[in-house]
Amino acid sequence: MKNILFNAYWVTEEADGTFKNQIIQRNTDELPQNGVLIKVAYSSLNYKDALSASGNKGVTRRYPHTPGIDAAGTVVESNSTNFNPDDEVIVTGYDLGMSTMGGFGEYINVPAEWVVSLPTGLSLKESMILGTAGFTAALSMHHLIRSGQKPEDGTLLVTGATGGVGSLSVAIASKLGFNVTASTGKSDKKEYLERLGAKSIVERDVVDDKSGKMLLRPQWAGAIDTVGGNTLATVLKSLKTHGNLACCGNVASPLLSTSVFPFILNGVNLLGVNSATTPMNVRKELWAKLSGDWKPNFSSIEIDMVGLNQLQNKIEKILQGGITGRVVVEHKCS
Ligand SMILES: NC(=O)c1ccc[n+]([C@@H]2O[C@H](COP(=O)([O-])OP(=O)(O)OC[C@H]3O[C@@H](n4cnc5c(N)ncnc54)[C@H](OP(=O)(O)O)[C@@H]3O)[C@@H](O)[C@H]2O)c1
């Protein structure tokens, strides 16, 4: 068993119920010995990480803790014949960064069942530009396509479009030939969304209907919703007949108040998306697509490369809905 000192972002629960964070030095022998020790080259910041870093017990049950639901790096030790030292690998989801020490540490130790070999065609850094956000965008597309969604059906709406999942959804759907409308609260990000491939852009208010009507003018053939709450309800009411909606986020609200009419009159499909529990066969299939036909043009995505000591600032920003694109954490350990 290796004994290596490493740096980690460390969240503690104080006696007064508040949460503090700092960068500390740890030893790999303090990590739970789950089977595969990985030296993390890159992680990324997702909304869920910010919840974990700020003491959300729905995400992280026990503190002290190191968040980071994403990690990409090289295997150091492995108890599985599927992985050997120096193999380049990705870990996203499962319990990583929730109650298992995550990618905001320079080393993680995880079960072999969580580990995916880095697909040919993606670098470690690119895999974390995608991270859970890109994987969730791909999983949303996977569900939509499996439900019959086709570009010729009409416009595909993406809400929360400048965020991580939103940006990657716009980029991937556009690459697959869908006519994408992006909804955003950031009026200054029109050019960015067009660069990602959006054909039109609407203000966030357009998909936040307050009329109380049970159904609205059918506008969208399909949608990927990262926002939840009244936005999700509005999009459901505005889907065309037999439209599909991939529901993957709740930045505005986890609540959904709706009637049965979108379902029984318009025959729409509400599709649940859970990236963390995606079975390994689908994971491998989607990572292969993300390194091939579905690989977005990385130069069009806003990417903020940060070290561990710059992370807190980004965590506060993502909680305020202020991030555009992706924040990638680069570990510079030797
Ligand atoms: N189901 C899954 O497996 C899965 C996986 C990953 C993430 N998620 C969820 O997906 C959501 C997005 O995650 P993310 O990492 O992409 O976060 P993010 O980068 O912060 O993106 C969220 C975006 O939503 C918009 N937004 C923020 N607050 C809003 C509000 N109050 N009302 C309306 N829009 C708002 C903003 O975009 P605009 O300014 O462009 O509107 C923001 O950039 C989160 O709820 C996250 O938990 C789910």
What brief labels describe this structure?
six-stranded parallel beta sheet; 8 helices; 2 domains; 334 residues; 15 strands; single chain; 25% helix; binds NADP nicotinamide-adenine-dinucleotide phosphate; Quinone Oxidoreductase, Chain A, domain 1; alpha/beta; Rossmann fold
| Helix run count | 8
User: Structurally, how many domains make up the residues?
Assistant: 2
What shape does the CA trace take?
A: globular
User: For the terminal residues, how far apart are their CA atoms?
Assistant: 19 Å
Average of per-residue pLDDT values: 97
Helix fraction? 10-25%
> How big a fraction of the residues is strand?
25-35%
Annotation, overall tally of beta strands: 15
- The helix/strand series, from N terminus to C terminus, equals EEEHEEEEHEHEHEEHEHEHEHE
Bound molecules: NADP nicotinamide-adenine-dinucleotide phosphate
Classify the fold: give the CATH topology of the largest domain: Quinone Oxidoreductase, Chain A, domain 1
Main β-sheet description: 7 strands, mixed
Unreliable residue stretches: none
> Structural class of the secondary structure composition?
alpha/beta
How would you name the CATH homologous superfamily of the largest domain?
A: Medium-chain alcohol dehydrogenases, catalytic domain
CATH architecture type of the largest domain: Alpha-Beta Complex
C-alpha-based Rg, rounded: 20 Å
CATH class of the largest domain: Alpha Beta
